[in-house]
Design goal:
6-stranded mixed beta sheet, single chain, 26 strands, alpha/beta, about 400 residues, Molybdenum Cofactor Biosythetic Enzyme, Chain A, Molybdopterin biosynthesis moea protein, domain 2, Molybdopterin biosynthesis moeA protein, domain 3
């Protein structure tokens, strides 16, 4: 069986991803989520001419050196002056308070001189100074945040200023994880002969959680057909949106995950990708559920999740395509084989800007080298190797 090119595999996955579905989400839970309906201002902000500082509201033409103005009241935030300013009058005003009718300027309190006769100023006034006009921030009907934006704290602040309590955001998927293999024990358990610690679900849960409503870990299933089938049946009965298994995706005598999935009604779109690490990747569907069968080797599992599952989750949530990183190499890369290589690398800040330091380790079970990496260099098929200083394409592992 020929190996499927990476781009074709990603395209096949994206064809199965449903369009983003909207749900109302309170502002307190909206940070980092994708906006599906734009934030539209329903009122003017400020809804009245407002003072930009503490001082005195008055008519600019009344200000003359040494001539006091009569103080007739106070305007503060939430309790404005209710009258109309007459010639020769001034109102004590505070930041954010409504500017009284008749006033056309505010002079800061540091420039005022108080006396029994009133308040005077040493310098002339400038009409409109220190007044925020009606709608200075935004006006009714203005689009404040466009659909498709991944919401930042600043955007949530303006949504709150627009008097919105909820936003229409893309519904988060529910993800189920299952590790398989007789040799696996959970972290913290004593290691018996021929056993290793299961690390895939821990890493995958952390990688996928920012995109998910829930990530449920269904533990470790042994290499036993009945036990594995029962565990998978329980997972599908919970009706998750996405199922991710690790292990049992290769061609060995004990790699039975794909067989059981087929028995349970999963339609397999493909398996075996032209890449390294991570060739034995399976993808299919069980009804509306997306099913990913990742390799058991830890590096392969994390790399295939970054390359294939993250684009699916981005599409699910309505994210824009991430920018393509092209960065210089700090060391040469070796020649590549016929399979696309996602090479571990470290992002380094140099005096000339960011650059990539390749990590030479290629073992797909070498977790400590994966822990050093924050980028994956995308090395094309049959690449002859690139010298230091060359610009190469790379993926940021931990970025949206």
């Amino acid at each position: 069986m020929s190996l499927l090119p990476v781009e074709e595999a990603i395209a096949a996955i994206l064809r199965r991803v449903p369009r983003p579905r909207a749900e109302p989400v309170p502002l307190s839970a909206a940070a980092g989520r994708v906006l599906l309906s734009p934030v539209i201002a329903a009122h003017d902000q400020p809804p009245f001419p407002a003072s930009a500082m503490d001082g005195y509201a008055l008519r600019a033409e009344d200000v003359r050196p040494g001539v006091p103005l009569t103080l007739v009241g106070t305007s503060q935030a939430g309790a404005g002056f209710t009258g109309t300013l007459k010639p020769g009058e001034a109102v004590r005003i505070f930041t954010g308070a409504p500017v009284p009718e008749g006033a056309d300027t505010v002079i800061m309190q540091e420039e005022a001189r108080l006396s029994e006769a009133g308040v005077s100023f040493a310098t002339p006034a400038q009409r409109g100074h220190s007044i925020r006009p009606l709608g200075n921030d935004f006006v009714r009907g203005q689009t404040l945040v466009s659909a498709g934006e991944r919401l930042t704290p600043m955007q949530l602040s303006v949504a709150a200023a627009a008097n919105l309590s909820h936003l229409q955001l893309a519904r988060l998927p529910r993800i189920a994880l299952l590790a398989t293999g007789d040799e696996l024990v959970p972290p913290g358990a004593p290691l018996g002969p021929d056993q290793i610690v299961s690390s895939n679900s821990t890493g995958l849960a952390a990688l996928l959680a920012p995109y998910a409503e829930t990530v449920d870990d269904f533990g470790i299933a042994p290499d036993d057909r009945a036990a594995l089938r029962a565990r998978l049946e329980a997972i599908f009965a919970a009706r998750p949106d996405i199922v991710v298994t690790t292990g049992g995706a290769s061609v060995g005598d004990h790699d039975i995950v794909q067989d059981i999935l087929l028995e349970l009604g999963v339609t397999v779109d493909f398996w075996r990708i032209n890449m390294r690490p991570g060739k034995p990747l399976m993808f299919g569907t069980h009804g509306q559920t997306l099913v990913f069968g990742l390799p058991g080797n830890p590096v392969s599992a994390m790399v295939t999740a970054a390359v294939f599952i993250k684009p699916a989750l981005r599409a699910w949530l309505g994210h824009a395509e991430p920018p393509v990183w092209r960065l210089p190499l700090l060391a040469p890369t070796p020649p590549n084989s016929a399979r696309r290589h996602f090479m571990r690398a470290r992002l380094v800040q140099t005096p000339q800007g960011p650059a990539l330091r390749p990590i030479g380790q290629t073992d797909s079970g070498h977790t400590s080298s994966m822990a050093e990496a924050d980028m994956l260099i995308v090395q094309p098929e049959h690449d002859p190797g690139q010298p230091a200083g060359s610009l190469v394409e790379a993926l940021r592992i931990d970025a949206f």
